[in-house]
Each structure stands twice: as structure tokens, then as C-alpha cells.
Amino acid sequence: MRVKFLGGFLSLVAIFLLFTGVVLAPGYTQRVNDKDLGEEVPREKPVVPPEDNLPPKAATGEYDYGSPVPPAEIPVDDDYFADAVFIGDSRTRGLQTLSGPTTATYLTAIGLTVDTVLTKPLIKTEDGLVSVLDALRATPFGKVYLMLGINELGWVYSEVFIEHYQKILTEIKKINPQAQIYLQSILPVAASREDQIYNNARIREYNALLQQLARENKVYYLNVAECVSDAAGALLADASTDGVHLKKEYCDLWYEYLRLHYVP
């Protein structure tokens, strides 16, 4: 009777342990339930790179073309510009002559505007003068840097300026859809040089339109004006002899800005 009773008792204990989730093994006891199974094992947090030097992102996670290109941690060298074409007026020609990358191609002309880029034969070639756009068609390139607008400040309608700029972007994309296109902000003029036509309020208006144009066309906006501007937004007093065109040391600053502001 005692043996039967003991056997029955042990059977009841086994059933109890089975339903309560207690598992007995030699040397230790462990409790397992749904809560334990759901607990997360602590893990090391992933290393997230600092956001200051990353390309700006829109809410969708795509590149924010409406924001100026931020500075990189490491500047590029001259070789980076080997497939770059610079299109611009006398200011860009000054960059070419004084400080710009020697590996780049320059399609510049004094007095160049957004409409003459498309039509007027200004670039010398072996076959004679051709328009900037036709010269670009004959040039292999992977990047285009544009700075236009100082000669258009006297135009009555800023919309016409943007319409012509849009045509330039459209044509560049037709020639090379994969090219990186950088719209550079128009550099300011010195406060002493401002008048009814050449003034920094008008330049800021044009630059705001250029930034919007960059966003709409998904091209990059470079706020190069900030590297040569004073606190009021005018060209630094010592940057130019005529209040418009940069001295060499300020063309150097312009080039250094380009070396630090790029999209990989």
C-alpha cells in the first residue's frame, strides 16, 4: 500500500511540474514561460555616422535637392574635376584664369547670359565659333558647374531668366542624362557697387529662384556666395577691385569651396 501511494504521489508531482513549466535537470532549475520567451537579448547599438557631413535628406528619405550641398569631411583634389565642365560668364573665366582646377574644361565668355548659352557662337573651336551648348555636345563630361545671372540682373522679368535656365538644364540632361549638374549661386556684389540694377537684393531673389529650380530638376545647389559674403550678404570689401570680379585669393576660396562641397 505504501509503495502504491508513493508511486501515485510521484505521478501527481510529475503532472504538476509538466503543467507549471518547471523543468528539473541535474544541477539546476529553470522557469520558462511566455514572458521569458518574449524578452529581448540586449544588443550593442549600431554606430550611426554623424549627420552633419551627410547629404541632406528629404522626409521621403531621398536626397533633398532643395537644400545646398553640405561640406564634406575630406576635400577632393584636382583629378575630381577631370570630367567637369564649367559654364559661366567673366566671373567663371576669372576662376579659370586665377585659381580653378586645371583638369576641368571651361566654356566661358564675357557677358554670357542664359539665352546666349543656347544660341550665340562664342566658343572657339577648330571649326570656328560655336555656341556653349554646341561645344558641350562635343565634350565628354560627367559633371557640369553652372554660374550665370550677374548679366541678367537688369532683365525686367525674373521668370524669363528662370525659363532660359530651365532650357539649359533640359538640354544638358539630353546630352548626358547621368551627369551631375551643380547650380552655383550668383556671387554678390560689393555694397559700394550696388545700384538700381546690380544690387544684392536682386541677387538674393535670383538665388532663391535657382534653389527652387534645383529642387524641381533634381540637380545640386551650391551656395558658393557664402564663402565671399560679409555679414550683410554683400561681397567682402577686399574681395574685388571693381566690386564684381574676384581677386585671386578669393577665387582660391571659391575653388576651396567647390573642393569641399560635392556629392559622391
Question: Overview of this structure, please?
Answer:
The chain is an alpha/beta fold and 264 residues long. It is built from eight helices and nine strands. It has helices at 2-20, 34-38, 90-98, 116-119, 132-137, 158-175, 200-217, 248-260; strands at 22-25, 28-31, 84-88, 105-108, 123-125, 128-130, 143-147, 180-184, 220-222. The strands form three sheets. The protein has a five-stranded parallel beta sheet, with helices on both faces. A two-stranded antiparallel ribbon has the order 1-2. It has a two-stranded antiparallel sheet with strand order 5-6. Helix 6 (158-175) packs parallel to helix 7 (200-217). The longest helix has 19 residues, at 2-20. The N and C termini lie far apart (87 Å).
- Please give the CATH class of the largest domain: Alpha Beta
Helical amount among residues, as a percent range? 25-40%
Strand residues, percent: 5-15%
CATH topology name of the largest domain, in short, is Rossmann fold
CATH superfamily of the largest domain: SGNH hydrolase
How many strands? Answer: 9
Mean pLDDT: 85
> Which structural class matches the secondary elements?
alpha/beta
> Strand order across the biggest sheet?
4-3-7-8-9
Gross geometry: globular
Write the CATH architecture name of the largest domain.
3-Layer(aba) Sandwich
User: What characterizes the major β-sheet?
Assistant: 5 strands, parallel
